[in-house]
């Protein structure tokens, strides 16, 4: 206990703040602590896949709460909202939530005739070339086709920044195609070739894009490949210049698979792998094995997967590596995936002293993160909890639900292996798990959805921990009410599906305030 200056620690503030006394109930009936609007919006935003049902909230109810909060906070503090949206998209990797927050924030401000700060919110949400169309589709679906000037100009800013030949090849689809976005927002091209691209995108949207301007060399090369007879296409893969030819034509693995019109052989993958993006490699490990990709090529893939700089640039969420590990048939991917997962958890601190890590494995944690994924909040909790325990100087790792049980691990063991030892434990008796496992630790970390039981004693879950000892709650789902107070002294809440906010724990323990991560 002497390792920490408790008087300084007691004065530290953190960003997610709630009332010090309960004013409501959690979904399981325990006393619930309401958060201020920014805190509630932040915790919901960093866990909200949009349009997805969670255990306690239907998709419509959850989305409506998110829209209302985004509008409320944008009215009160548009600069904070724009920073949050930009961070949410770029650092937290929450694409849909960023788009919705931007649209709803601007909509609320325009309804109140608030000028200034609207255009930056729109531009902040758009970081990939398919997202201008996503935002316009969302706006059209909710508010009609008429576009207010801040929306139009914010989208146009993003179009000028994002639209190029390769992005046209990869992302020109959906209800709002590149040509639609350009015609609706009238972006001014940055260069003459981009002007040619804009005109060509409009022409092809209206079925008249056969003549490709000479300035668009990649699109012209692609058109030549598409014109090859089907029975000549596979032979191109055997040419010594195949990698260059395919790269010059902007052929992604998805488009090349359709172009070949046949089984995806080892030769197919070995030609396209050098030009594949990081996430595409991660998604196709099983396909590489099934096609019989050589060990030499697999070694190059493994090197890229485990490269810390590439992991950081990819913004892939830690749970994606767990999904890839479960899907891959070959053990040759286990070590690079572990290295990649470690790199994606770079912000998880090596905590000194003794740490109690409690991981929620109650039934409500087993809802899928999205309809397109088999990953659950319980998976995310296990990954973060295991990573914290493995990096700590001394840690006790415990899973809890109705009851609780230790999770064994060894120093320097793989997070992926430790995650396999977690189970499903029923209810959410957080208070008993804390009470039975706290043994003079220097801190307690609870990874949970905060939907604690009322329990037989009716106690606040962290009450068994002395007030001078910090308790950090890591919220993975973003429900409205928390299981305890947060934001001051020794009780703090963070959240999200990335490791971004873990860096706040060392700040608090150094006696410094931990503000928003943006």
UniProtKB/TrEMBL annotation:
Keywords: Cytoplasm, Metal-binding, Ribonucleoprotein, RNA-binding. The keyword Ribonucleoprotein applies. InterPro entries: TROVE2 (IPR040322), TROVE_dom (IPR008858), TROVE_dom_sf (IPR037214), vWFA_dom_sf (IPR036465). Residues 1-37 are annotated as: Disordered. The keyword Transferase does not apply. It comes from the Bacteria. This is TROVE domain-containing protein. The lineage of its organism: Bacteria, Bacillati, Actinomycetota, Actinomycetes, Streptosporangiales.
